[in-house]
């Protein structure tokens, strides 16, 4: 950890000595530590506190993470993160096998969710008898109505 990072904290970076004025510059992340625990990382949308910049300073709460939709989103998050890893580690056969297993879990979870609560993405309506995209309750309403 550099002196500058220690003085400023994990959310601060620094510009090179001769950085040009009025040019966008994204400083390299200085350290992979500290890291959030898995549940908090999912809630905040990042593993690294230094990259944690919540929109309008709003942060998900644990209650929002215990809904069926949040569970579906967590599996989808893992799929996307593993895909990013495989983009740079295509020869990692163990990771690819794990990725395929997670894709199967995601597919099963998606089917269970849509059967119980309705469509998540427009293509879920391909066999629907009527247009159900905007029917209440919305997925985030289930916790409030006790429909876990």
Write the layout of secondary structure elements.
Layout: H1 3-8, H2 38-44, H3 68-88, H4 93-117
Helix pairs in contact: 3-4
Description:
- The chain has 148 residues and is mostly helical.
- The protein has a domain at 62-141.
- The chain is 40% helix and 0% strand.
- It is built from four helices and no strands.
- The protein has helices at residues 3-8, 38-44, 68-88, 93-117.
- Helix 3 packs antiparallel against helix 4.
- The longest helix has 25 residues, at 93-117.
- It is extended, with a radius of gyration of 20 Å.
- The protein starts with a helix and ends in a 31-residue tail after the last helix.
- Residues 144-148 have low confidence and may be disordered.
In short:
Helix content is 40%, strand content 0%. It is mainly α. The termini are far apart.
Properties at a glance:
148 residues, mainly alpha, 4 helices, 40% helix, extended
**DSSP helical segment count:** 4
Q: What's the average pLDDT?
A: 76
Helix and strand sequence: HHHH
Uncertain spans: 144-148
Radius of gyration: 20 Å
The percent range for helix content is 25-40%
Structural class: mainly alpha
Strand content: under 5%
Largest sheet: none
Number of beta strands: 0
Report how far the terminal alpha carbons are from each other: 44 Å
User: Shape, please?
Assistant: extended
């Amino acid at each position: 950890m550099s002196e500058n990072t220690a003085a400023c904290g994990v959310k601060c970076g620094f510009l090179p000595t001769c950085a040009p004025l009025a040019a966008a510059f994204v400083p390299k992340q200085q350290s992979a530590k500290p890291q959030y625990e898995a549940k908090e990382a999912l809630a905040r949308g990042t593993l690294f506190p230094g990259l944690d910049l919540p929109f309008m300073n709003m942060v998900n709460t644990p209650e929002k993470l215990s809904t069926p939709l949040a569970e579906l989103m967590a599996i989808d998050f893992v799929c996307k993160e593993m895909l990013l890893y495989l983009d740079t580690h295509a020869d990692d056969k163990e990771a690819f096998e794990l990725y395929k297993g997670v894709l199967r879990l995601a597919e099963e979870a998606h089917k269970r969710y849509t059967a119980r609560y309705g469509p998540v993405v427009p293509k879920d309506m391909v066999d629907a008898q009527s247009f159900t995209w905007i029917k209440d309750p919305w997925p985030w309403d289930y916790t409030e109505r006790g429909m876990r």
